[in-house]
Write a structure and sequence with these properties.
By secondary structure, this protein is mainly alpha-helical. 53% of the residues lie in helices and 12% in strands. Strand 1 and strand 2 form a beta hairpin. 0% of the residues are buried.
């Protein structure tokens, strides 16, 4: 008799864990779908062009309104 009760408790626990995992999977997938639906980023025309400074080797932004 006690083994039957243990089996029922284990089955109930496993069902609760599976239900929680399904809920979390759906929540994470919904968040990912929301992020995927957004635009990727700024259009290329809005981004500054990076040019390498020959003296230091550091890439610096070049473009309108930026220090060259």
């Amino acid at each position: 008799m006690p083994t039957v009760i243990l089996w029922l408790l284990r089955a109930a626990g496993a069902a609760i864990v599976v239900k929680w995992l399904v809920k979390e999977t759906r929540r994470v997938n919904a968040e990912l779908d929301a992020v995927r639906a957004q635009p990727a980023g700024k259009p290329a025309a809005d981004r500054p062009i990076l040019k390498r400074d020959p003296a230091t080797g550091v890439y610096r932004p070049q473009g309108p309104g930026l220090h060259s």
